[in-house]
Structure formats: structure tokens, C-alpha cells
Amino acid sequence: ALPKILSQTAPAFCLGSCSFVVEKSKESTARVVVWREIGVQRSYTMESTLCGCDQGKYKGLQIGTRELEEMGAKFCVGLLRLKRMVSPLEYNLPSSLLDIENELIESSCKVT
Length: 112
Hints:
By secondary structure, this protein is an all-alpha fold. The protein has one domain. Helix content is 46%, strand content 0%. Helix 1 packs across helix 3. It comes from Heliornis fulica (sungrebe).
């Protein structure tokens, strides 16, 4: 669910580049270990690029601090949306936080 949310809101995120397969070479990574040994259901690794983007509004550009901060903001909004989807009755937020979420989404998390 989180990758799908990010693909809808984060311009630098590409769902098509995601891999959810646990390869033998990845069995000792933190995300796989916490999933298998601790039982964390949603354990992800988010990677960035050194070569620049090949899709979306950042196509052909290098990733800088602004884009990384934007991705971090979108990630936080995505976690909030995921939490509200998973347990909407248990997760009542003050309306001011919901307003902040909507502002972040509408402004595309423009970092200055």
C-alpha cells in the first residue's frame, strides 16, 4: 500500500522500479531480517540514484538536497495516509494535522 501511495504523490518515486521479491543476496538485509525474525509486515528499503532520474518531472536531472527533502516529506504524508487507511477508527487526528496533510499534498511539498 505504501509504494502505491508514494507512486500517486511523490514525483521522484517510480512504482515500476520497485521489487518486492526476496532474493537470496538480500536475505541478510535489515528489511528482510525484521520481516522474517521480528514479523514486521511492511518493511521496505528506499533507494536513491546517483545517475539522475529517467522518468517523471525530474527526468534527465540529478537528485539534489531539495528533491531528497521533498521525497522525505512525501514519505511522511504517505505514512500518515497508510495509517489512516489501516486503522481509520483508531487513528483520530486533530483537524489541524489533517489540514497540514492536505496543504502538503496540494503544494507538492515544495521545499524552499
